[in-house]
Specification:
By secondary structure, the chain is of the alpha/beta class. Helix content is about 50%, strand content about 15%. It has three domains: about 110 residues, Helix Hairpins, CATH 1.10.287; about 130 residues, Rossmann fold, CATH 3.40.50.720; about 70 residues, Alpha-Beta Plaits (2-Layer Sandwich), CATH 3.30.70.
Length: about 350
């Protein structure tokens, strides 16, 4: 009942905003007066038939099952026809303009989103397209809406379930993007700036997001590892240092040839096996890490490589064999696709 009232309220507001209520009132006036006048001039026509005739005439359908024969009735019919043509044209143009305006505002990032449990990408650079492709490849995120916040003239992408909010990273823009209902935010660096200014802008954006929506999980792109402490103070939950990661991979490639291909497979959702973090299956609670690893590999063809200990808020890769799994732990695994374990 509440939803119906809300829909009707929004509809009335829309009609009033676009002055469509005047068109409807005028159409109702023509409908009622035309029907009554036809009955007055055409004595054989009943009121219910006159109402039907008025609807058919105003919409220019003209079935011809009822037609006036007197001069007065034909004059009434002429007026109803002319009014109907004008009203239909005006109504069609108004509705078309609403659709055009809606698409224009959506493309220009001027609309407010009404989403829940969505992802937000703050800022935009050439890596944004790859990020969206990776997220869409994972079944977990295939249908989840993504909102891009960027200070650009038009949306950088027009795919389904992808929304654009134009503006700087500030409280007003975050509210339009529904940040308080989002599940996570990715904050990208601005490639148009030098490294120092780029990281400074990223830190300021992170601080703005965390001050406005403290519970929003933020994954932040950083260019220089020297600025990591500042970004941690800003409240970033996870920090990806772009230069540092590429440097480490280059070193590993030189020391152990071909290992970077293995790493690339694990961090890409588009091919091969991937890294996943899953909730602890109930049947593994109380088992040692070694036993759980063997059972998962034997039954599910899943390789468990780490544990996130929620009680101590630590993530351990390759924990001790005797580590006892707890109910609130998370497993870090390698699998071909995201598993659903009971």
């Amino acid at each position: 009942m509440v939803n119906i009232v809300t829909v009707l309220t929004r509809l009335l507001h829309l009609l009033k905003r676009e002055n469509m209520h005047r068109i409807l009132f005028f159409a109702l006036g023509v409908f009622v007066s035309g029907s009554v006048l036809l009955v007055l001039f055409e004595k054989e026509i009943l009121l219910r038939d006159a109402l039907w005739w008025c609807v058919v005439t105003m919409t220019t359908v003209g079935y011809g099952d009822i037609s006036p024969t007197t001069l007065g009735g034909r004059i009434v019919g002429l007026l109803v026809m002319l009014s109907g043509i004008g009203l239909i044209g005006l109504l069609t143009a108004t509705i078309a303009s609403l659709f055009i305006e809606n698409k224009f505002m959506e493309k220009r990032g001027m609309k407010t989103t009404d989403l829940k449990d969505h992802f937000i990408i703050c800022g935009w650079n050439f890596r944004g397209e790859t990020i969206i492709q990776e997220m869409r490849t994972d079944p977990k995120c295939e249908k989840i809406p993504i909102v891009i916040i960027a200070d650009m003239d038009e949306t950088p992408d027009l795919r389904e379930n992808l929304f654009f909010v134009r503006g700087q990273i500030d409280p007003a823009t975050l509210d339009r993007a529904g940040a308080d209902k989002a599940s996570a935010a990715i904050i990208l660096s601005d490639d148009a700036l030098d490294t120092y200014a780029r990281d400074a802008k990223t830190i300021l954006a992170t601080m703005t997001v965390k001050n406005h929506v403290p519970d929003l999980y933020t994954c932040v792109e950083l260019m220089d590892s020297k600025n990591m402490d500042h970004l941690k103070l800003a409240g970033a939950d996870e920090i990806i240092v772009v230069g540092e990661i590429s440097t480490n991979l280059l070193v590993q490639a030189a020391l152990d040839h071909g290992i970077t291909r293995f790493v690339s497979e694990l961090v890409s959702n588009r091919y091969g096996n991937e890294l996943y973090k899953i909730k602890m299956p109930t049947y593994l609670v109380g088992n040692s890490f070694f036993n759980a690893m063997c059972r998962l590999k034997e039954k599910e063809n899943i390789l468990c490589i780490g544990i996130e200990d929620r009680s101590e808020t630590t993530l351990v890769a390759n924990p001790e064999s005797g580590y006892v799994l707890k109910e609130d732990d998370f497993l870090i695994i390698i699998a071909e696709e995201r598993p659903e374990l009971g």
